[in-house]
Every structure is written in structure tokens, then in C-alpha cells.
Specification:
disordered N terminus, AraC family transcriptional regulator, 5 helices, four-stranded mixed β-sheet
Length: about 120
């Protein structure tokens, strides 16, 4: 007898966040290494954010409130610093939108464990 295996993608499609439906879902934008010039305007209003350590001073000079964390979730903008922290940003989005159980399944499929601090606006 063959066991039926659920893939993380299939589980994610079926998962529902309690009290939330697709029609009322808000959109969040994720950005890795937000030290790019096109993102500065969005951050100039004092949005909490992070970026690669080499660009943090520039980002702060442009008006962003730079947080020393691996991933920063400011509600509708989620930022991370460095290339590999983009994986952590993606896993945080999975955790935030469909739950930790699904995120753990995705981690297992990727053979990667989320690391570092996720800062969240209260």
C-alpha cells in the first residue's frame, strides 16, 4: 500500500489562515537588499527596514528606520539583508501567511532552516 505524500506546495495551496479569505487578503511586498535607489522613496517616510550591512548607512541617510535584524516585517513591506537572507524572507512570508507548520514543511523540502531574527512591527 502506497502512502499519499503531501508536498509543501500542495499543503500551502490548501492551507487557510483562520479568519482570512482571499477577497480580504492584504498585499505585502518583500524586498531583499533594499539599498536600491528605487526603494528609497518608499522608505523615506520612516518605514522600519533592513538591508545588506554595507548599505545600512545609505539607507538610514535616505530616511529609512534601519533595524539591525535579519528580516524586518513592517506590515506591508518586509525587508531582508543580503542574498541568503532572501530565503529567510520567503520562509517568513510562508509562516506569516499560512502558518509555521507549512513553513516547516517547506524548510524540509528546501533542506534549509530559517535563521536570524525576524523583527515585527507591533
Amino acid at each position: 500500500m502506497r502512502s499519499r505524500r503531501t508536498t509543501p506546495a500542495a499543503a500551502t495551496r490548501r492551507a487557510r489562515r483562520p479568519g482570512r479569505d482571499r477577497e480580504n487578503a492584504r498585499t505585502a511586498r518583500g524586498a531583499r537588499c533594499v539599498g536600491r535607489e528605487r526603494d528609497f522613496e518608499r522608505l523615506a517616510n520612516g518605514t522600519q527596514c533592513t538591508t545588506h550591512s554595507a548599505s545600512k548607512a545609505d539607507l538610514a541617510a535616505q530616511g529609512g528606520k534601519v533595524i539591525n535584524a535579519h528580516v524586518v516585517d513592517d506590515g506591508d513591506l518586509i525587508t531582508s539583508g543580503g542574498i541568503t537572507s532572501g530565503l529567510d524572507l520567503g520562509l517568513w512570508l510562508v509562516t506569516r501567511e499560512v502558518g509555521a507548520d507549512i513553513s516547516i514543511q517547506v524548510e524540509a523540502a528546501m533542506e534549509y532552516e530559517q535563521r536570524g531574527v525576524v523583527w515585527r512591527r507591533s
